[in-house]
Write a structure and sequence with these properties.
The chain is of the alpha/beta class and 203 residues long. The protein has one domain: Rossmann fold. A 7-stranded parallel sheet has the order 3-2-1-4-5-6-7, sandwiched between helices. Helix 6 links the parallel strand 6 and strand 7. The protein is globular.
């Protein structure tokens, strides 16, 4: 079985990227992502991974300004040709779940969150960025409107949704009208010390 992994972007090693590393340990398959800063993943199991990037990788100052290319994300993620794979596993908090697949391919999407700034945190983002009024505000609102429409349409390309929590599963149900299986992300318990909660008076 040929497997491909898809992730939104690999620019900073955050929680979603650690989850991708865990998936990669199980399925050491080619990775497709919009933007890559390989230097940030030296010392991880992704350091020498086969990683394919989108045309956004070649845009000016992309490693620092990649978020400004949001209007291009849906188009860019759809340009990856995954027709040679049997199973696609996407790790998505933005557009990774929107890759195009064929009828004989299986797509499992691990959702860290539906796009927060396009859905439930939309008005908060508009206020924080001072885009309530003016031409820039109109353009930004229009972009996020189009992102929402695409986000719902692209949810139909996923065969099985996996959520990282019950809360995210409820948001998937709300926005996409789809059920999701909850699989909690791995935790390195070696970094925690066991404590007796009862003796500490906590329970």
């Amino acid at each position: 079985m040929k497997i491909a992994l898809v992730h939104d972007w690999l620019v900073t090693p955050g929680g979603a990227e650690k989850l991708l590393q865990s998936i990669y340990e199980i399925f050491p398959a080619p990775i497709y992502t919009l933007v890559l800063d390989r230097d940030k993943f030296i010392g991880t199991n992704l350091e020498n991974a086969e990683i394919h990037t989108s045309f956004i990788q070649n845009l000016p100052l992309v490693k620092k300004t990649y978020r400004y290319y949001l209007p291009f994300y849906p188009y860019a993620i759809e340009q990856f040709d995954l027709s040679g794979y049997d199973l696609i596993i996407s790790s998505s908090h933005c557009v990774a779940k929107g890759v195009l697949i064929g009828p004989d391919q299986l797509h499992i999407s691990y959702i860290h969150t539906p796009i927060r700034y396009a859905w439930d945190m939309y008005h908060e983002y508009i206020r924080d960025m001072h885009y309530e009024h003016g031409l820039r505000g109109y353009v930004f609102k229009r972009v996020l409107h189009n992102i929402r429409v695409w986000d719902v349409v692209s949810s139909n390309r996923v065969d099985y949704f996996v959520a990282n929590s019950q809360f995210v599963a409820s948001r998937i149900k709300k926005f996409y009208r789809r059920n999701a299986t909850v699989i909690y992300p791995p935790v390195d318990i070696s970094k925690f010390n066991f404590s007796n909660l009862h003796s500490a008076g906590i329970v």
